[in-house]
Amino acid sequence: MIDYGLQGKVALVTGAGGGIGRAAALAFARSGASVLVSDVNDEGGRATVALIEAQGGKAAFQHCDVSDSAQVKAMVAAAVHHFGRLDCAFNNAGITNIAADEYDEAVWGRAIGINLTGVMLCMREEAEVMLTQGGGAIVNTASINGLVGNPSQPAYVASKHGVVGLTRHGALRWAKAGIRVNAVCPGVIVTPMTAPLVAKEDMRQLLDSMTPMGRMGQAEEVAEAVVWLCSGAASFVTGHPMVVDGGATAV
Ligand code: NAD
Hints:
This protein has helices at residues 19-30, 42-54, 69-83, 105-133, 154-173, 195-198, 201-210, 219-230; strands spanning 10-13, 34-39, 59-63, 88-91, 136-141, 179-186, 189-190, 217-218, 241-244. It has 251 residues and is of the alpha/beta class.
């Protein structure tokens, strides 16, 4: 694990109660940042805080449904309240609807509301704080489904393409203000989201074989990219949708 030199910095992570968000929260803390851990899942979020504290880091939990603007405002305020500033934000909370019909308007609306509108609400509040500080770094979680199509998940694909577009917009809007905005586009990663698929042996083999590297990714492999993008090592990188996909989109 590389130390990305985030001592004295403050990071905020949404959807940090498990999966990629938890791995990123732990990685931010290992690089020295204090972490505002946020999720709708209070138990998962508090467990992430406990894991960070157990490794000697500083963290606090704030419940937040990212599709609710008042809760997003309160979450960003909580980061400043607990730790005094906000330097890095990882807008990662998201849902998928593996079994549901995403052409159903309610299912569609929920996916867009969390995966896309949620990212917009977070970026809006985070940028407001970062502008007063003279800069910061934001990373949004898109997906390889934000870069290529998929025949079965219209809302997921549309929301993640939207996240890539919103990332490019934010990068341009705040480029001269010192705020960098990037995205990560994970391929298939082993997390609670993919657990129902991974649990089926034939499906696991199919998912492994679909990736050129012959395996699914680990949440920590996405977290490394996120912390790097937020660090000074990526000081000239903005507006970039970075794939972490074992070669899936290189095909
Ligand atoms: P996960 O289900 O383990 O984590 C998602 C987290 O988001 C959960 O802790 C959940 O409680 C939280 N969440 C759900 N709705 C929320 C809301 N309205 N407000 C706040 N938090 C909410 O899944 P994951 O795989 O870690 O997914 C994280 C992100 O990565 C998602 O945006 C997902 O779309 C994306 N992604 C995952 C994969 C994969 O293969 N796992 C691939 C590409 C992209």
